């Protein structure tokens, strides 16, 4: 899995199922940081404050990454909700994701195995229908070229997914560019080829 590009939730997503009279509502959201994951969980807990349980799990980072994860059984028997939810998330192929499975108890006990299956199924059902987009780690470059190379440079940029943030005309032409980290070296090579090495390329900053 490319850690610089990977699927993330495109927005808030919700699914629901009834299992032996208990109502399970799974809410999923994009969670690029632990703080945002916890804020989302708090919002769902507030929305369903009258629920029997609001169990949750999150994975911040690329799909399958365990560096920044969290989970909670929220009163269900230990290991029957948060852990299976997290396991399903880690195998779900989506990064930067948080999910809350809200349960309204219907009067029938599911047993530990039944709970594990129910909470796992909630996450899997949400993942199956989850709209995703791509997280692309980007960086910014300062590029300076002679006027004779401006047209050639502009023709190159779309091939490397470059967005022009600013341009400045003086003795030379300066650009502030934003592009995927994975495209930087290829663009640098293309600009060197275009200008026969007469180009200045300097990194500015990058997102995390």
From TrEMBL:
Record-level GO BP terms: regulation of translational initiation
Domain Impact N-terminal: 20-127
UPF0029 domain segment(s): 143-198
Top-rank lineage group of the source organism: Bacteria
Record-linked InterPro entries: EFG_III/V, Impact, Impact_N, Impact_N_sf, Impact_YigZ-like, Ribosomal_Su5_D2-typ_SF, UPF0029_Impact_C, UPF0029_Impact_CS
GO cellular component assignments: cytoplasm
Extent of the signal sequence: none
Gene3D superfamilies: 3.30.70.240, Impact, N-terminal domain
Family statement: Belongs to the IMPACT family.
Protein name from the UniProt record: YigZ family protein
Organism of this sequence: Myxococcus xanthus (strain DK1622)
């Amino acid at each position: 899995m490319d850690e610089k590009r990977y699927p993330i939730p495109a927005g808030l997503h919700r699914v629901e199922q009834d299992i032996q009279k208990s109502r399970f509502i799974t809410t999923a959201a994009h969670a690029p940081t632990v703080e945002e994951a916890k804020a989302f969980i708090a919002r769902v807990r507030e929305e369903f404050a009258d629920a029997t349980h609001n169990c949750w799990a999150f994975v911040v980072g690329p799909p399958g990454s365990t560096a920044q994860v969290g989970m909670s059984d929220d009163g269900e028997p230990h290991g029957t909700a948060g852990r299976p939810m997290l396991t399903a998330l880690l195998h779900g192929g989506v990064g930067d994701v948080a999910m809350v499975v809200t349960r309204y108890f219907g009067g029938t006990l599911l047993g530990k195995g039944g709970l594990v299956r129910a909470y796992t199924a909630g996450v899997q059902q949400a993942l199956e229908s989850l709209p995703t987009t791509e997280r692309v780690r980007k960086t910014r470059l300062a590029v300076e070229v002679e006027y004779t190379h401006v047209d050639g440079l502009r023709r190159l940029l779309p091939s490397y997914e470059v967005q022009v943030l600013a341009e400045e005309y003086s003795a030379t032409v300066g650009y502030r560019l934003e592009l995927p980290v994975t495209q930087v070296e290829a663009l640098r090579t293309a600009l060197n080829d275009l200008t026969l090495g007469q180009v200045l390329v300097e990194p500015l900053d990058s997102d995390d």
